[in-house]
Amino acid sequence: MTSPYGLDGRVALVTGATRGIGLAVAGALARAGARVCVTARDPEGVRRAAETLGGIGLPGSVADPAHLSALTEFTLDAFGRLDILVNNAATNQPYGPLMDADPDAWREAFTVNVESPLRLTQCAWRAWMREHGGTVINVCTEGATHVGPNVGAYGTSKAALLHLTRQLAGELAPRVRVNSVSPGLVRTEMARFVWEQGEDAVAAGLPLGRIGEPEDIAQAVLWLASDAARWITGTDLLVDGGTRVRAALPASGYAVHDHLRARGPATP
Ligand SMILES: NC(=O)c1ccc[n+]([C@@H]2O[C@H](COP(=O)([O-])OP(=O)(O)OC[C@H]3O[C@@H](n4cnc5c(N)ncnc54)[C@H](OP(=O)(O)O)[C@@H]3O)[C@@H](O)[C@H]2O)c1
Hints:
This protein is of the alpha/beta class. It is built from eight helices and seven strands, in the order E-H-E-H-E-H-E-H-E-H-E-H-H-E-H.
Protein backbone atom coordinates (compact mmCIF):
# COMPACT_ATOMS: atom_id res chain seq x y z
CA MET A 1 0.00 0.00 0.00
CA THR A 2 1.27 3.48 -0.85
CA SER A 3 2.09 5.61 2.20
CA PRO A 4 -0.52 8.35 2.80
CA TYR A 5 2.38 10.64 3.73
CA GLY A 6 4.07 10.38 0.34
CA LEU A 7 3.93 13.39 -1.97
CA ASP A 8 5.35 11.84 -5.14
CA GLY A 9 4.14 13.73 -8.19
CA ARG A 10 2.91 16.72 -6.16
CA VAL A 11 4.18 20.28 -6.45
CA ALA A 12 4.54 22.63 -3.48
CA LEU A 13 5.06 26.39 -3.26
CA VAL A 14 6.48 27.67 0.04
CA THR A 15 6.93 31.36 0.90
CA GLY A 16 9.69 32.56 3.22
CA ALA A 17 11.62 29.37 2.59
CA THR A 18 15.25 30.47 2.71
CA ARG A 19 15.71 29.83 6.44
CA GLY A 20 13.91 28.87 9.63
CA ILE A 21 10.50 27.22 9.49
CA GLY A 22 9.94 27.79 5.75
CA LEU A 23 13.19 26.11 4.74
CA ALA A 24 12.45 23.16 7.05
CA VAL A 25 8.92 22.86 5.59
CA ALA A 26 10.20 22.95 2.01
CA GLY A 27 12.81 20.32 2.93
CA ALA A 28 10.25 18.01 4.53
CA LEU A 29 7.91 18.31 1.53
CA ALA A 30 10.81 17.65 -0.88
CA ARG A 31 11.97 14.59 1.08
CA ALA A 32 8.40 13.27 0.92
CA GLY A 33 8.61 13.43 -2.88
CA ALA A 34 7.19 16.85 -3.79
CA ARG A 35 8.87 19.17 -6.25
CA VAL A 36 9.21 22.53 -4.54
CA CYS A 37 9.31 26.18 -5.51
CA VAL A 38 10.49 28.68 -2.90
CA THR A 39 10.42 32.45 -2.54
CA ALA A 40 11.87 35.14 -0.24
CA ARG A 41 13.30 38.62 -0.81
CA ASP A 42 17.03 37.84 -0.77
CA PRO A 43 17.99 36.46 -4.23
CA GLU A 44 21.11 34.69 -2.96
CA GLY A 45 19.10 33.03 -0.18
CA VAL A 46 16.52 31.86 -2.73
CA ARG A 47 19.24 30.53 -5.06
CA ARG A 48 20.86 28.59 -2.20
CA ALA A 49 17.58 27.18 -0.87
CA ALA A 50 16.44 26.04 -4.33
CA GLU A 51 19.80 24.35 -4.92
CA THR A 52 19.74 22.63 -1.50
CA LEU A 53 16.19 21.41 -2.06
CA GLY A 54 16.69 20.33 -5.66
CA GLY A 55 13.84 22.68 -6.55
CA ILE A 56 13.33 26.09 -8.07
CA GLY A 57 13.01 29.59 -6.63
CA LEU A 58 11.94 33.08 -7.57
CA PRO A 59 13.06 36.02 -5.40
CA GLY A 60 10.63 38.76 -4.45
CA SER A 61 8.43 40.09 -1.67
CA VAL A 62 5.06 38.54 -0.89
CA ALA A 63 3.90 42.11 -0.29
CA ASP A 64 4.13 42.71 -4.06
CA PRO A 65 1.00 41.39 -5.84
CA ALA A 66 2.89 41.23 -9.15
CA HIS A 67 5.41 38.88 -7.54
CA LEU A 68 2.63 36.57 -6.33
CA SER A 69 1.18 36.25 -9.85
CA ALA A 70 4.65 35.74 -11.34
CA LEU A 71 5.45 33.12 -8.69
CA THR A 72 2.33 31.12 -9.52
CA GLU A 73 3.05 31.25 -13.25
CA PHE A 74 6.71 30.40 -12.65
CA THR A 75 5.74 27.28 -10.64
CA LEU A 76 3.16 26.14 -13.19
CA ASP A 77 5.49 26.77 -16.15
CA ALA A 78 8.25 24.74 -14.51
CA PHE A 79 6.26 21.87 -12.98
CA GLY A 80 2.86 21.91 -14.70
CA ARG A 81 0.82 21.79 -11.49
CA LEU A 82 0.46 23.32 -8.00
CA ASP A 83 -0.92 21.04 -5.30
CA ILE A 84 0.36 22.48 -2.02
CA LEU A 85 0.66 26.13 -1.02
CA VAL A 86 2.35 27.03 2.28
CA ASN A 87 1.93 30.70 3.26
CA ASN A 88 4.81 31.01 5.72
CA ALA A 89 6.53 34.39 5.16
CA ALA A 90 5.65 36.96 7.82
CA THR A 91 6.84 40.03 9.70
CA ASN A 92 6.74 40.61 13.46
CA GLN A 93 6.90 44.42 13.06
CA PRO A 94 5.76 46.92 14.32
CA TYR A 95 6.89 45.86 17.79
CA GLY A 96 5.82 47.71 20.94
CA PRO A 97 2.58 49.02 22.47
CA LEU A 98 -0.23 49.47 19.94
CA MET A 99 -0.71 53.11 20.98
CA ASP A 100 2.74 53.81 19.49
CA ALA A 101 2.25 51.70 16.35
CA ASP A 102 3.36 53.43 13.17
CA PRO A 103 0.47 53.26 10.63
CA ASP A 104 2.74 52.33 7.71
CA ALA A 105 4.35 49.50 9.66
CA TRP A 106 0.89 48.34 10.81
CA ARG A 107 -0.32 48.27 7.19
CA GLU A 108 2.82 46.40 6.12
CA ALA A 109 2.16 43.75 8.81
CA PHE A 110 -1.34 43.21 7.47
CA THR A 111 -0.13 43.21 3.88
CA VAL A 112 2.53 40.56 4.51
CA ASN A 113 0.76 38.47 7.16
CA VAL A 114 -2.85 38.53 5.93
CA GLU A 115 -3.30 40.02 2.47
CA SER A 116 -0.52 38.11 0.73
CA PRO A 117 -1.69 34.69 1.94
CA LEU A 118 -5.12 35.60 0.55
CA ARG A 119 -3.74 36.93 -2.74
CA LEU A 120 -1.45 33.94 -3.27
CA THR A 121 -4.31 31.56 -2.48
CA GLN A 122 -6.41 33.43 -5.08
CA CYS A 123 -3.60 33.00 -7.64
CA ALA A 124 -3.25 29.28 -6.89
CA TRP A 125 -7.02 28.77 -6.92
CA ARG A 126 -7.59 30.53 -10.23
CA ALA A 127 -4.59 29.03 -12.00
CA TRP A 128 -4.82 25.43 -10.77
CA MET A 129 -6.64 24.44 -7.58
CA ARG A 130 -10.19 25.45 -8.57
CA GLU A 131 -10.08 22.85 -11.33
CA HIS A 132 -7.67 20.25 -9.95
CA GLY A 133 -7.89 20.57 -6.15
CA GLY A 134 -5.09 21.12 -3.67
CA THR A 135 -4.30 22.17 -0.14
CA VAL A 136 -3.26 25.42 1.53
CA ILE A 137 -1.47 25.69 4.88
CA ASN A 138 -1.03 29.04 6.59
CA VAL A 139 1.68 29.39 9.22
CA CYS A 140 0.03 31.28 12.06
CA THR A 141 1.20 31.50 15.70
CA GLU A 142 0.26 30.19 19.11
CA GLY A 143 0.05 33.91 20.07
CA ALA A 144 -2.86 34.54 17.69
CA THR A 145 -5.41 33.57 20.31
CA HIS A 146 -4.17 35.47 23.38
CA VAL A 147 -2.65 38.86 24.12
CA GLY A 148 1.04 39.44 24.79
CA PRO A 149 3.23 42.45 25.63
CA ASN A 150 4.58 44.43 22.64
CA VAL A 151 3.40 41.93 20.02
CA GLY A 152 -0.07 43.40 19.45
CA ALA A 153 0.28 44.14 15.73
CA TYR A 154 1.76 40.72 15.00
CA GLY A 155 -0.84 38.92 17.14
CA THR A 156 -3.75 40.87 15.63
CA SER A 157 -2.61 40.16 12.08
CA LYS A 158 -2.12 36.46 12.86
CA ALA A 159 -5.57 36.32 14.49
CA ALA A 160 -6.89 37.64 11.17
CA LEU A 161 -4.93 34.94 9.36
CA LEU A 162 -6.49 32.32 11.62
CA HIS A 163 -9.96 33.55 10.67
CA LEU A 164 -8.98 33.83 7.01
CA THR A 165 -7.94 30.17 7.14
CA ARG A 166 -11.35 29.08 8.40
CA GLN A 167 -13.22 31.35 6.01
CA LEU A 168 -11.28 30.04 3.02
CA ALA A 169 -11.73 26.46 4.20
CA GLY A 170 -15.47 27.01 3.99
CA GLU A 171 -15.36 28.82 0.65
CA LEU A 172 -12.95 26.47 -1.15
CA ALA A 173 -14.37 23.15 0.03
CA PRO A 174 -14.61 20.48 -1.16
CA ARG A 175 -11.87 20.96 -3.77
CA VAL A 176 -9.25 22.57 -1.56
CA ARG A 177 -8.43 21.94 2.09
CA VAL A 178 -7.24 25.01 4.01
CA ASN A 179 -5.63 24.67 7.46
CA SER A 180 -3.13 26.46 9.65
CA VAL A 181 -0.27 25.45 11.90
CA SER A 182 0.42 27.58 14.96
CA PRO A 183 3.96 27.33 16.29
CA GLY A 184 5.06 28.25 19.79
CA LEU A 185 8.56 29.64 20.28
CA VAL A 186 10.87 28.17 17.62
CA ARG A 187 14.63 28.57 17.24
CA THR A 188 14.74 30.87 14.17
CA GLU A 189 16.04 34.33 13.29
CA MET A 190 12.62 35.93 13.75
CA ALA A 191 12.42 34.81 17.37
CA ARG A 192 16.12 35.08 18.22
CA PHE A 193 15.44 38.14 20.42
CA VAL A 194 13.36 35.90 22.70
CA TRP A 195 15.17 32.57 22.80
CA GLU A 196 18.74 33.87 22.77
CA GLN A 197 18.34 35.24 26.27
CA GLY A 198 15.27 33.48 27.58
CA GLU A 199 15.54 29.91 26.31
CA ASP A 200 16.05 28.14 29.64
CA ALA A 201 13.17 30.01 31.28
CA VAL A 202 10.83 29.33 28.36
CA ALA A 203 11.82 25.67 28.21
CA ALA A 204 11.22 25.29 31.95
CA GLY A 205 7.70 26.67 31.49
CA LEU A 206 6.79 24.24 28.71
CA PRO A 207 5.36 20.81 29.50
CA LEU A 208 7.56 19.26 26.79
CA GLY A 209 10.63 20.93 28.30
CA ARG A 210 12.28 22.62 25.30
CA ILE A 211 11.67 25.33 22.72
CA GLY A 212 10.71 24.27 19.18
CA GLU A 213 12.99 23.48 16.28
CA PRO A 214 11.95 24.30 12.68
CA GLU A 215 11.63 20.58 11.94
CA ASP A 216 8.93 20.25 14.64
CA ILE A 217 6.75 22.62 12.63
CA ALA A 218 7.76 21.12 9.28
CA GLN A 219 6.49 17.68 10.30
CA ALA A 220 3.08 19.12 11.23
CA VAL A 221 2.83 20.96 7.89
CA LEU A 222 3.89 17.82 6.02
CA TRP A 223 1.17 15.81 7.74
CA LEU A 224 -1.52 18.41 6.99
CA ALA A 225 -0.37 18.59 3.36
CA SER A 226 -0.51 14.82 2.93
CA ASP A 227 -3.45 12.55 2.19
CA ALA A 228 -3.26 11.35 5.80
CA ALA A 229 -5.13 14.58 6.64
CA ARG A 230 -7.61 14.22 3.78
CA TRP A 231 -10.70 14.76 5.99
CA ILE A 232 -9.31 17.82 7.77
CA THR A 233 -10.06 21.38 6.72
CA GLY A 234 -10.51 24.67 8.57
CA THR A 235 -8.50 23.51 11.56
CA ASP A 236 -5.53 25.01 13.38
CA LEU A 237 -2.84 22.65 14.60
CA LEU A 238 -0.96 23.98 17.63
CA VAL A 239 2.67 22.85 17.67
CA ASP A 240 3.95 24.56 20.77
CA GLY A 241 5.40 22.15 23.33
CA GLY A 242 2.18 22.26 25.32
CA THR A 243 1.74 25.96 26.20
CA ARG A 244 -2.02 25.45 26.65
CA VAL A 245 -1.49 22.92 29.43
CA ARG A 246 1.37 24.66 31.24
CA ALA A 247 -0.97 25.57 34.14
CA ALA A 248 -0.32 22.04 35.42
CA LEU A 249 3.39 22.84 35.92
CA PRO A 250 4.66 24.00 39.35
CA ALA A 251 5.61 27.43 37.86
CA SER A 252 2.74 28.28 35.54
CA GLY A 253 3.76 31.80 34.36
CA TYR A 254 4.51 32.20 30.66
CA ALA A 255 8.22 32.95 30.35
CA VAL A 256 7.90 34.31 26.78
CA HIS A 257 5.63 37.09 28.05
CA ASP A 258 7.78 37.68 31.14
CA HIS A 259 10.74 38.12 28.80
CA LEU A 260 8.90 40.44 26.38
CA ARG A 261 7.64 42.55 29.27
CA ALA A 262 11.08 42.79 30.86
CA ARG A 263 12.95 43.77 27.68
CA GLY A 264 10.45 46.54 26.91
CA PRO A 265 9.24 47.97 23.60
CA ALA A 266 12.61 48.50 21.82
CA THR A 267 12.32 47.04 18.31
CA PRO A 268 14.20 43.72 18.05
N1 LIG B 1 10.01 31.46 15.18
C1 LIG B 1 8.97 31.45 15.99
O1 LIG B 1 9.10 31.34 17.24
C2 LIG B 1 7.57 31.54 15.43
C3 LIG B 1 6.50 31.37 16.32
C4 LIG B 1 5.21 31.45 15.82
C5 LIG B 1 5.00 31.63 14.47
N2 LIG B 1 6.06 31.79 13.62
C6 LIG B 1 5.76 31.99 12.19
O2 LIG B 1 6.54 31.10 11.41
C7 LIG B 1 6.76 31.67 10.12
C8 LIG B 1 8.22 31.60 9.76
O3 LIG B 1 8.95 32.36 10.71
P1 LIG B 1 10.48 32.06 11.06
O4 LIG B 1 10.57 32.14 12.51
O5 LIG B 1 10.96 30.84 10.33
O6 LIG B 1 11.16 33.39 10.44
P2 LIG B 1 12.61 33.63 9.82
O7 LIG B 1 13.59 32.64 10.28
O8 LIG B 1 12.86 35.08 10.07
O9 LIG B 1 12.36 33.39 8.25
C9 LIG B 1 11.48 34.21 7.55
C10 LIG B 1 11.51 33.83 6.08
O10 LIG B 1 10.56 34.64 5.40
C11 LIG B 1 11.20 35.43 4.39
N3 LIG B 1 10.46 36.69 4.29
C12 LIG B 1 10.30 37.63 5.25
N4 LIG B 1 9.57 38.65 4.78
C13 LIG B 1 9.25 38.34 3.50
C14 LIG B 1 8.53 38.99 2.47
N5 LIG B 1 7.96 40.20 2.66
N6 LIG B 1 8.41 38.38 1.27
C15 LIG B 1 8.97 37.17 1.05
N7 LIG B 1 9.67 36.50 1.99
C16 LIG B 1 9.81 37.09 3.19
C17 LIG B 1 12.66 35.53 4.86
O11 LIG B 1 13.59 35.77 3.81
P3 LIG B 1 13.95 37.26 3.30
O12 LIG B 1 14.30 38.07 4.52
O13 LIG B 1 15.10 37.08 2.35
O14 LIG B 1 12.73 37.78 2.61
C18 LIG B 1 12.85 34.12 5.43
O15 LIG B 1 13.05 33.20 4.38
C19 LIG B 1 6.17 33.08 10.19
O16 LIG B 1 4.87 33.06 9.65
C20 LIG B 1 6.10 33.38 11.66
O17 LIG B 1 5.12 34.33 11.98
C21 LIG B 1 7.34 31.76 14.06
